[in-house]
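FYI - complex with N-hydroxy-L-asparagine, inputs then prediction.
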Amino acid sequence: MINRRKFLHFSALAAPLLTAKKTFASNFDAATRPIVVSTWDSGMPVNAAAWEILSTKGTALDAVEAGAMHIENEINCCVGLGGYPDRDGIVTLDSCIMDHKANCGAVAGIERIKHPVSVARKVMEKTPHVILVGAGAQQFAVENGFTLESTDLSESAKKAYAEWLKKSEYKPVINIENKKQNGPFAPNFFDDGTLNHDTMGLVAMDITGNLSGAVTTSGMAFKLHGRVGDSPIIGAGLFVDNEAGAATSSGTGEEVIRICGTHLVVEFMRQGYSPELACKKAVERIVNRDKVKAKTLQVGFLALNKKGEYGAYAIQKGFEFSVKSEK
Ligand code: SD4
């Protein structure tokens, strides 16, 4: 079994544009499965949690939920209740999940709930709706047996928030895995220098060839209270189509929403582009619209197709992802 990280050594801004090559996937028998891919370096333990399910013939849906729950459990990390708060000092979480039949569920701006991904799954399975937000999402969670956790910030979040309050400047930090390019209070590094991304997106294919995906996040640090990013939006932060492939995103959510990013990536895969080229073409949509603005942004896409091929592309260097498969 392989659990590895992947580094992207290029960026859309720096790399010469490649000629798009179409690679039509016709032989599904050759699929590498099961397989799970997840965003960032912090995806390694997430993949390991998902693999426990995939490797015992479990479903991709159960696997992505388990992976997302794993990182939500890390109270001193990033994506769950340990994440950075909004500008009012409140941690609000976004999450979604989608399966191979286009069933999907999401919660946005939910407070005091440890496992928003599981609430998202309940929305998917127990309601006729797709997204529940804020107080309504929390009420639904409590009615379904989820416990209300404390409102206390994690130690690292407390410190970062106190520091942010000195200027109270809303300036999203480009979230990339290059410490030099991040200030001491960048959301992706703890005080001790360990990595801390605020978003986890993962997509998986199980032994039967079915795809699913999940995303969980505390969103942009110090966002406006009530702000919702791409992560819980189906077609933006996550999209799964069992015929074409699955994709997830990380980075400045507003830019992903503007282009319906992961839906676009999946549609490019449907047209025959490899996962990497599909991601690249979606990134180019953002970059080509405003090259100057793009230099201040990070958006990364990660995709998996039905053959078990995966790929990623990002505006800036430093978007890493993690892969786990048998081969
Ligand atoms: C958001 N896309 O809330 C998320 C943030 C993110 O790595 O992905 N950060 O916009």
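The first helix runs from residue 43 to 54. The longest strand covers residues 104-110.
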